[in-house]
Amino acid sequence: MENNKVLEAVGLSKYFYDPVKFQVLKEISMSINHGEFVSIVGKSGCGKSTLLYLLSTMDTDYDGEIFIHNELVTGKTDKELALIRNEKIGFVFQFHYLLAEYNVLKNVMLPGMKLGKFTNQELEHRAMEHLKTLDMQDQALKMPNQLSGGQKQRVAIARALINDPLIIMGDEPTGNLDKKNSDLVFDIFKKLTQEKNQTLLVVTHDTDFAERTNRIITMEDGSIIS
Ligand SMILES: Nc1ncnc2c1ncn2[C@@H]1O[C@H](COP(=O)(O)OP(=O)(O)OP(=O)(O)O)[C@@H](O)[C@H]1O
Ligand SMILES: [Mg+2]
């Protein structure tokens, strides 16, 4: 490989048409290198979540190009994109989206079962290892509604890690947590970059959090200003 870019966006523009035509993203170009921990900040409504939706391939209605691991993903079919997402991207959102009908262990294993790269036995082992790293091994057999908010978010992180993602993307992963649990999630992310060279891209309102990442991307009115 000629470079160590994990993610690259070239000239991304996006419009919403309802209720009126409105350019939400304006010629966004950026790239993330392997092992970087990058945050995206900016005022409410400036386009952070919209940009993350594009970068994570969930929204394909845009102009410009997106490369993941130097591969052009723009123009691929929904099926191809679903595979790329499951294989290469781990997600952590403000709300955990754990499935209420499955226990912690199964929730963590699910994206792995969908991908089919590992056997169920391997997945169970991997899931337990991640839960252990997050100090959650004792909670593995609990149902999501038996966990605290901070614990749920740690399960969501374990789930994001199950397929060894190229990059973890988060939209306000600490948005629903108190200071103590936010710090804990930050420390987990930091440890992942330092010890596992994990690449992370996180949208956040939390300036404390952002200032402790490797690089801050600041957005204003659909553009990157620094
Ligand atoms: N489906 C939609 N249709 C029309 N406009 C939308 C739609 N989704 C978002 N917008 C508008 O696009 C702009 C950017 O929204 P976005 O959710 O990306 O902001 P954000 O930076 O993530 O804000 P926040 O910090 O509040 O989460 C906002 O003005 C919003 O009202
Ligand atoms: Mg948002």
UniProtKB/TrEMBL annotation:
Is Acyltransferase a UniProt keyword of this protein?
Answer: no
Recorded hits in InterPro entries, A to Z, give:
AAA+_ATPase, ABC_transporter-like_ATP-bd, ABC_transporter-like_CS, MacB-like_ATP-bd, P-loop_NTPase
* UniProt keyword list: ATP-binding, Lipoprotein, Nucleotide-binding, Translocase, Transport
Annotated GO molecular function terms are:
ATP binding; ATP hydrolysis activity; transmembrane transporter activity
A single Gene Ontology CC annotation of this entry is: membrane protein complex
Keyword hit for Hydrolase: no
Family membership noted in the UniProt record: Belongs to the ABC transporter superfamily. Macrolide exporter (TC 3.A.1.122) family.
Name under which the protein is recorded: Lipoprotein-releasing system ATP-binding protein
Q: Source species, please?
A: Flavobacterium xinjiangense
Q: What is the lineage of its organism?
A: Bacteria, Pseudomonadati, Bacteroidota, Flavobacteriia, Flavobacteriales
